[in-house]
Amino acid sequence: MFSIQGPRSIYVYSLLIGLLSGFGAYGFNWALTWTESFTFGNLMGYDPGIPTGDSNFHSTGYVSSLSPLWILFLPAFGGLLVGIVTSFFCAEAQGGGTDSLIYAFHFNEGKIQTKVPFFKVIATILTLGSGGSGGKEGPTAQIGAGFGSSLAGFLGAGARARRTLMLAGTAGGLGAIFRAPLGGAITAVEMVYQEDIESDSLVPCILSSVTAYLTYISIAGSGSLFSVQEYSLNDYRHIPLYIILGLLCYVVGYFFVKVYHNIQDVFSKLPLPNFLKPAFGGLLVGCIAFLFPEVLGTGFGLIQRMINGEVLESTSFGFSGPFFLLAVALFKVFSTSLTVGSGGSGGLLGPSFAIGGMLGAFVGSMAQVLFPELGIIIFPFLLVGMGSFFAGVARAPIAGMIMVCDMIGSYELLPPLMIVSVIAVVLSHKTSIYRNQIKNRFLSPSHHWDMNQDIMDRIRIRDHFSEFRKYAMVSENLSLTELQSNAPGIQASDFILIGAGEEYKGIVSLRKNRILPEFEDDLKNLITCGEIVQDVPSVCTNDTLGKALQILLEYDVDKLAIVEDGKCLGYLRYIDLFNAYQNEVKNKQRKSV
């Protein structure tokens, strides 16, 4: 009754996933806001602020003064609880969340364990609620992705449909929590690649994201995440300042990526039990927050306060100014890296927006001091910095621009966002905060079968191969038992069979022919490879990759013999065809530039 029967059914299920994602995002945000109200207000005595779009959520008053001991030790306590959850119940709940979604898309056919979103929500509430530095998007994206993956499993969908529904769920979670219906969809399809987008999933992602957004605002109230005053870019003299902002976003973004990855590596090798690592990371975050409480939480409240025109000053030391904003941005880099890199649970997208916003505010503030005649307003630089910084560290230029425009409910800042985001992305072309991102569709296992058949039919084997592999070529007189024992060393399951004169005989597949252990002694020397050979056509060097691929698929083998003048020269594998195809495409791209 319920099944995937084509694109239209995927569209319908994307609407359902969006509906569930919207409810899930609301429930998570309500629980997190309630937790933060208690821990930040009643324990730490620090008011991080709240975006206008989240003002309808439960909140209590804050105590009048800071409690340094709570600020110092509460992140460590939260990290300890997170470590227990991730070490004993669900290891996949640690870290940023988005990177694991990218891994599932490329390498696990879009499969996500049903328990992961549930424990991810718990771990993130513990992390952010105790003062850890991270974002909300990790759990909300995983909630939606989990709905999509689980629904695909229930429907018996194939890998391609499952990946699409997983991304649709991701888009739903992002579109709801950031109140960004288009931005959530674009981010979902752009974040899986460094230089490409998952265009096949764009329409399902849009449907899911819009549905999730409408579901979310129907409960939480309408309006954008951040409220801003009207603004238009009407002074060309500001453009050089935006270019400087783009350069600064690149430099700090590169620094962020390196610090985060290095801290990840250090904590992975740290001689501590895994459940204690987030606690140690939380203790270090507490030490930073002891001096700069502004690094606690998501940082979105600070963004709204600056948009409102509030002059931020140090809660601990009482000083303010441009360099205070720069200091907060840099310490946010370390606090986020320590929180998430140590095994805590929180997204990286949210902190990227916060860091970029601080950098933008720094440039705007400096411009006000140095060039008072320009009439600089700070908040446009803040918002442009948000989009540019995320675009650079995530290799997602379109997503960075659209997300910010959606979050403020206006596209007035799109021109400077385009300038600054392109600068940051072009300069940071070799770095990404997401380690599991793949360069483009050609390199992703999810698209190994999407190669252009016309190109395949034009590529001759001789044009890309001068010699061939021979490791898995065996004699027709070899016994099946001997072949089985030799297979692990050769690391092969299909073998090219040759005669005494190196003539090609066919292919023997251990996937299809294997002596069971209980019969091995009786049949040890009775069955030879020549007796179970599969008659698979060969190709010559003048044949095309298209013909080679067709034979591999039709006969269900992973190797194909290359025969010239009656002798077997070697064989080709799937990966050899893919590499040749990719090189051909790259050559054509270079020539067309």
TrEMBL record:
It is found in: Membrane. It comes from the Bacteria. Keywords: CBS domain, Chloride, Chloride channel, Ion channel, Ion transport, Membrane, Transmembrane, Transmembrane helix, Transport. GO terms for molecular function: chloride channel activity. Residues 532-587 form the CBS domain. Its main location: membrane. GO terms for cellular component: chloride channel complex. It is a multi-pass membrane protein. The chain crosses the membrane at residues 12-32, 69-91, 165-189, 201-227, 239-260, 280-303, 315-334, 346-367, 374-393, 413-433. The keyword Amino-acid biosynthesis does not apply. This is Chloride channel protein. It comes from Leptospira bandrabouensis.
